[in-house]
Structures are given as C-alpha cells and as structure tokens.
Amino acid sequence: MSFRLVVGMLFILMGSTSSVFAQVANRAQNVVLITLDGLRCEEVFGGADPRLMTKENGVEKPDELKEKYWVEDREKRRAMLLPFLWGRCQEGTAWIAGDLENESLVAVTNGLYFSYPGYNEILSGFPDPAINSNDKKYNLNTTVLEWLHSKPAFAGKVAAYGSWDVFPYIINDKRSMIPVNAGWQPFHVGAPDRVEVLNFVSKQLFHQWEGVRYDVLTVSGAIEELKTNQPRVLFVSLGETDDWAHEGKYEKYLLTAQQNDFFIRQLWETVQSLPSHKDKTAFVITSDHGRGDGREGWKNHSDKLPGSERTWAAAFGTGVGSSGVDQGGKYEQAQVAATVAALLGEDFTTFKSSVRPSLPIVK
User: Fold this and answer.
1) Record: fold of 29-350
2) Which of 2, 57, 73, 91 gives a 20 to 30 Å CA spacing to 320?
3) Count of C-beta atoms within a 10 Å radius of residue 230
C-alpha cells in the first residue's frame, strides 16, 4: 500500500471521527421537561385576551390589568406575558409550535382533553383509551422517564416534581422507582436550611387547593434537586394556571402564567450555574390540554369545548436544531416523549410500536 494512500485513508478516518465527536458534542446530556397545566395557545401566542379582562372574570381592576398586559401589537403583547420564553424565540434560540395564525398545530389525540390522559400522552408517547379519569390509579404504561431510568446511564438520575398530587400515580413511582415529589408532600432533597424553610412555609400556608400546591414551592424543590443531585432528566409540572382558570379568575391565571415564565428562567439559570449541566441541557415545555373560548368557555376544557384539543410545545438549549415560530407544522402532543429521549441520543420508539416519533427539532 502506497504512503499517499495510507495518508489519504488517515485523513478520511480523522474526518469521520471528528464528525462523530461533533455530533456527540451537539447532543444534550440532560433534559428538563416542563408542563404548564392548561395554559391556552391563545395566551401563549396572543398574550392577554381583552374579552376576559373583566370583573365578570375575576378581575378587580380591569383598567389596571389592561395597562399591565395589553398593547395592540400581538408580538409585544405575548412578550409582556411570557418575556423569557418569547425573548429566546425572538433572539433565535428557541423553537415554539402551536400558533394557528401560522397554521401550526400541536394536537391532543386522547379525545378527552383533561389532565391524566394528557400527561400520560406526553410521558408515554401515545394516548390510552383506558385512562379516562383523573382518579389516583397507577399508570400501567411505561413513561419515557421510567424507560430512561431503567438504563444504566440514567439510573438514579431521573426525578419529578409536580404541583398536582396525582403525579406519583401517573409516573407510577412504586414500579419505576423514580422519586416523585408532588402535591403537598414534604421536601427532603436540598440544603438542610432550605428544606426546613420550604417545609415550614408549605405547612403554614393556606391551601387554596388540597390536591395542588403552589407552583413556587414545586419549582423551589426542583431547584434544590438540581443543585443537590444534578439529575440528567428532570420533570417539572406546574399547575396553578389550570386551577385559577377553573375558578374563573383571569387576573390570577395571567399572573400565574407570567410567574411560570419567571420560574422557567430560574430553572434555566440554575442549570447554567452547574458544571454538569451548563451548555449541556435541553428544555422542553408544553401543556397537557387546551381550553374553551369565550367568557365562560375559557374556564374549562373537555371534548365538548372546542379548543381543548389544541396545545403547544417549545424547546431550547443544547441539541435543539430548530428555532423561531413554527410555520405550518402539524404535530401531536404524544411526540414529546420520544423528543425527550432523542435529545439524549436515545430512541424511545423502539420500546413500543405505538410510541409516536420525535418532533423534528433534534440535531
């Protein structure tokens, strides 16, 4: 074999190896999946709805609320409500889908359009007709969290924090062995002084809902988890938007949506402060269902309320290869599960034929 041929082969090999290294470097090592319960596409893409900023919808001072959230320009309006998320989209570092004005659709396919069926679809990768209530029954389906947790690379590196107390059943913590902190459960992970304060506040606060704790507590627990255990996969589910909507309190629904945007920023800044996660982490954000429309319909969601079947999805960080507002894409909520796995270099669709493919945004 000639010297020139050997050198040529070495260059080819080096180029191939460099390509592989580049692909691995662009892949996320960690994923944070966040859900905002029942936050409508209408507010995500259009900001505050002027029809609902009324005293009939729980707004004490409509003029002050409009001053805080309303401008004529749609893009400015949504950025007033969700400044962190839309700031990333505007600078070209985040992807978001589900805006009907851009003919983009993220469809809920379980046909029921409420929480347990929606969260199963997000986490398991397919709708299950057997899940037809919000009852506290252990999920027979294997979620992407459990599937990843069963792999050596992720064992002991998956955690979940939820405001709703049904999540231990949805994730099936007994079978999956994933630590799930949800509802008004006490916190155990984190700096001792922080955990003590969180538990004291959680116990002393008035509980607006017995089954749903305040999102600030859920996020605070999740941040302590990140700092202490550096999980490779973290699921954080925030719930207040849905509950304030059910109570017809549009002002608090908007305030909570804005707070959740701030909480996402806090989670991102925490991730970026950790050497194990900095520039190695992807965020995926979505909602479990849509809502109805109009002065009464917005409060609820069901198969009887058009709009409940539409949701949205966003992603940013390492390994996310698309950015900006999606144009004309047609997606399913169930694709989120495989997307979480694909960002980590894993193929969840090999687990079960019914699992929907990843969203086409992974590098």
Assistant:
1) Alkaline Phosphatase, subunit A (3.40.720)
2) 73
3) 15
**Residue 336 DSSP label:** H
98 and 313 in contact (C-beta within 8 Å)?
A: yes
What tens digit of pLDDT does each residue of 212-249 get? 999 999 999 999 999 999 999 999 999 999 999 999 99
Calpha distance 340→30 (Å, rounded) = 9
Cα–Cα separations (whole angstroms), residue 4 to 7, 8, 9, 10, 16:
5, 6, 9, 10, 18
Residue among 155, 179, 148 nearest 343 (CA)? 148
**Residue 16 reports pLDDT greater than 70:** no
C-alpha distances out from residue 23 to 16, 28, 306, 343, 360, Å: 11, 10, 42, 12, 16
For the full predicted model, state whether its pTM sits above 0.90: yes
φ/ψ of 327, rounded to 5, equals -115, 110
Sign of the CA dihedral with 121 first, then 52, 50, and 79 last: negative
Which tens digits make up the pLDDT trace of 333-362?
999 999 999 999 999 999 999 999 999 999
